[in-house]
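Notes on consecutive records. When two proteins share a document, each keeps its own sequence and its own token line. Never mix them. Below: protein one.
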Amino acid sequence: MRRALAVTAVAGAAWATRRALKRRIGRSPLWPLPALETPVSGHSPRRALRALIVSRTQPAEGVLQLTLESTDLPAWTPGAHVDVTLPSGLVRQYSLCGDPADGGRYTIAIRLVEDGRGGSREAHDQLVEGAELELRPPRNRFELLPAPSYVFVAGGIGITPILPMLRAATAAGADWTLLYGGRSLDSMPFLDDLAAYGDRVTVHPEDEVGLPDLAPLAEAAPGTLVYCCGPEPLMLAVTAAVPDPAAVHLERFAPAAAPGPANPFTVELRRSGRVVEVAADETTLAAVRRELPATPYSCEQGFCGTCQHRVLAGAVDHRDELLTDAERADSMLLCVSRAKGDRLVLDL
């Protein structure tokens, strides 16, 4: 009898131990390494949204305009963009160009880039009316700040974040002008919408009148803010033309030139118990994926946030166009950002 009781007690203890161990491993899959807070782990902390494509139009040659509807779409402000997950899983960023007052509806426009990385081609070929899209809630790193006057400069598809700014500036009673350039009139979307603003808008097709004259930017009234979105050469020219750099606000759809030389450094992958060396001529993402091939990524340009990971130690040279200052305090995008020093520790 005593033997049976002893066997029962041992079996019960073993069952309790296995259960406790299972819970412990669940909290930290690499146990017995110390459990850490939930990592960013290669996905945006923002919740996914679902929206229906209710309209597909072509406002200009090579430009696709989509209207999306859902009862779950958050409010947004002029200058905001959304991350769109394409059918292949690629994540791309598109500025919201509709009216923020139009609740439950987003409008985006996508320029077809024939020699691009494939996202725009996929969007043009596969995003059809009636299809459902996955989005992430809007971000805004191009916010329209209060000012008595504005000068807006847009190049091509760069008109998209500017459109809602024009509505907001008009409603606020601010003085403003828009210089809108493009390769040709046929390639420039939303010309009909802009016609309603009369002589506040200057349309500048390059095939007819050449490159725009930016010299008048230097003569803007004190307190005027300059907002520009377009190709990098246009933004560099606008920045050079404005005497006060603090007055210039830019929205890029390609990464800026790397700010300085890249140095080699070491990355400790704390959860995995591994150390990788990042060469001067490779990205942090490429080096990490040598050890952890399943590390997710998408745009490789610092825009989408798919490769965002928590930084446990070390100073980061942030080279992205996405993260907020608060997010940069404890995370980085592996595809473009690097170490300022010789070592980083990641929650991977």
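Protein two starts on the next line and is unrelated to protein one.
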Amino acid sequence: MRDTRESRLLLVLLIAIAFALITVDIRAGEESPVDGARQAAAAVFGPVEKGVATAVDPVANAIGAVRDSGERHNRVAVLERENAALKAKLGSDEQTRSRIHELDEMLKRAGAGQYGIKGAEVIAIGAAQGFSWTVTIDAGSKDGIERDMTVLNGDGLVGRVSTVGPDTATVVLANDPDFTVGTRLEKTGELGFATGQGDRPMSVQMLNGKAKINPGDRLVTFGSRGNKPFVPGVPIGEVVKVDPSRGDLTRTVWVNPAVAFSRLDIVGVVVMPPREDPRDAVLPPKPEAPKPTPTVTVTVTPSGSASVPGKPADE
């Protein structure tokens, strides 16, 4: 295109239209008028993203082995057999060993919570919806994925499915500023609501302003009605700071997410909720505090029969 006055005006007009659409999309939220166009784009470009990711990823077929399993993962023996099959298909280099570990942990979490999951791989990262924190996974409606399904990995809550195409889906991450999830405190069961804060700790409003909470306490998802968008029992994170209680009805605590959102790779979409609330069963055991090393003190006591230099021993 030639650099003319008309071309410059056209460029300015297109930029203005783009910003207007982004503004309308952000303000409208879930009822965005451009949601239909977004889903259509996912249907068109989703297979391309998925194809590229499969071409450059030698373990995509191994992930598919988890995705294609439609049975409820409610027995440890079944998970162990599937995990062994995945390990056999994967190689032994450093990156592959790391991914095997991710699969191990994800299957353990699914087994502990009795979640039926579809395995998927993160194939794109970016602001697919406005400026929100999102990722694209290589599983869509053809794989049984639906909107508002819980997404987790071996560490805990990743997010929820927001948009679904035939071959791909968009996941809004738990650290997104518009992301809110009901929480339950480990052991005590105190309830609250966690909100994403980007790359900072999540903010949690505890419903009981007098609740006893300490750094190191852990939270899990409380669950949603009909298990959408959240199933119960998924680890959220660990308390790192507790605001002083000022006699208010609520109390704010700050939680480090269990998931490292900048290193997402293999995830699981919960397509079948648990029969019962797993409570704290999905939380990994807390590491034991190191035992102090015993200190040995040697005290030397002079003997009464010790000889004095220059004198006989019997004096």
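For the record: The two ends are 117 Å apart (CA to CA).
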